[in-house]
Amino acid sequence: MANHETHNDRETEIKLTNELILAYDPAKAEETLNLITATRQFLERHFNGDADNKSHEKVKPLSYTQLRNILLEVKKHEQNLGRIIPKLAYMEAKLDDNNQKKLVKFIRELLETAIRQKKDKIFIEYMDMLVAFHKYYSSSKKQ
């Protein structure tokens, strides 16, 4: 994990990785907090752009509706999550914005890894968390 302080709130940055998510044990409060922190930081970059990105182009995050539709597909195909991988790949290819593509690619790669590691339930639980925090950030950006 990469550890360095962020500029705005001086908390330790926790890199959101497939390994961090799929090793998650919901019975351990500290792991839950680490995953929440990493997800929040990941979405802050999704909504505000990467600090490395010197471009002055407006960041266009994936919409709440688009992310919610992914979650609905996950719930619909809970017994065979592999069925939504082609849909995610298609969605990723269709998107024009690199920021949006990056989030869909992250979800697709996480799903592929979760299936290989037989951690479907953790993936589903994480998707619920991701959608909830995305809603929070998309609502707070409007204010």
Average predicted confidence as pLDDT: 86
Order of helices and strands: HHHHHH
The domain count comes to: 1
Distance between the first and last residues' Cα: 33 Å
The dominant shape is: globular
Poorly predicted ranges (pLDDT <50, ≥5 residues)? 1-10
The number of strands is 0
Q: Label the structural class.
A: mainly alpha
Helix fraction bin? 55-70%
What is the overall number of helices? 6
- Beta-strand proportion: under 5%
> How many whole angstroms does the radius of gyration measure?
15 Å
**Biggest sheet, open or closed, and with what strands and sense?**
none
Task: Describe the structure in your own words.
Helix content is 63%, strand content 0%. With 143 residues, it is mainly alpha-helical. It has one domain (18-142). Residues 1-10 have low confidence and may be disordered.
Describe what is shown at a glance.
This protein is mainly alpha-helical and 143 residues long. The chain contains 6 helices and no strands.
Please give a handful of descriptors for the protein shown.
single chain; 6 helices; globular; mainly alpha
Topology at a glance:
Elements: H1 18-22, H2 29-48, H3 64-76, H4 85-94, H5 98-116, H6 120-142
Helix pairs in contact: 2-6, 3-6, 4-5, 5-6
